[in-house]
Structures are given as C-alpha cells and as structure tokens.
Design a protein that fits this description.
By secondary structure, this protein is α/β, with parallel strands linked by helices. It has 7 helices and 5 strands, in the order βαβααβαβααβα.
Length: 177
Amino acid sequence: MVGTSETRLVVLRGNSASGKSSIAAGLREEFGRGLALVGQDNLRRLVLRERDRPGAANIGLIDSVARYALDAGYHVVVEGILYAAHYGDMLAQLRADHRGRTHGYYLDVPFAETLARHANKPQAGEYGEAEMRDWYRPLDLLPGGAETVIDADSALAETVNRILLDTGLAGLRAPEH
C-alpha cells in the first residue's frame, strides 16, 4: 500500500499539446506546497533521455517517484501522454495500491487543435506535425472507466477548478513540507 487515506493521486493523460502540463501547473499554483508534480516528459526526456516504448525504464521511475511522494505525505499529480498500452498496467497498480482518493482525467483534444496549441509552445521547433500525428492516439482511455474525459472546450481555469473540487484538494490545507 502507498500513501495515506488523506493523500490524493491525480493522473492527467492526453495527447501532446492537450494541456496536461498547464493544468498540472495550475493545480500546483492553486494548491501550493504539498502537491508533487510527476511529469512524464521530465523523467523520460530529461532525466533518462529515452524513447517512449513498452517496458522502458521511465515507467518504473514514474511509479517510484509517485509512490515515494505519496508515502512522504504529498498529494501527487502524474501527468503525461502515458499511452494506455505502455503505462496502463503501472497506473492500474498505482491506483490499486493508493490508500487515498485517486482521480484520473483524459484530455480529449482533436488533432487539429493539438497542432494549433503546439505552435505556441516553447518547443514548437523541436518537432512538428509529422511527429505529432505519429504520437496521436484518439481517446486512448484506460480500461475500466478509470478516467473522466475532459474535452477541448473546457478552459484552463475551469478544468483546474473542476479537478480541485472533484478531488477534494480545494478543501484541503497544504501539508507542511
């Protein structure tokens, strides 16, 4: 078992440029200290510099970091593309092992909109339409109805507030860390 009955685990998934990192940053800004952000891009691309493939080392690293933070009393947001085929088993086990409340969200943004959003990102020059088309998976949901689907019409502030309310984070005080 991992975490406590008081810790919250939030999993944010979706395609590239769907808004995952912006939502995670908004949750952190609203909640403050005591909310750990476990970003797939940070651990996979920056820490390990590996490709996204089944069985890759970042899958275990994401799991370990999330578990460590939950055990230390942090609320945790795990965010990334996190393809169901690659990360689904790890996320299901993390969810099953978590003592507190766990909430999953999938950001359903059409491909054309992800391209438009990508054009405004700092890394827009690093990859383009061809790579994004190759990565894009429409409604790549985890099995068992573990996720709430949020569509592209939900504004950033609206989505952040919804998640804060759904998870109960809106009513919690940040733990001392």
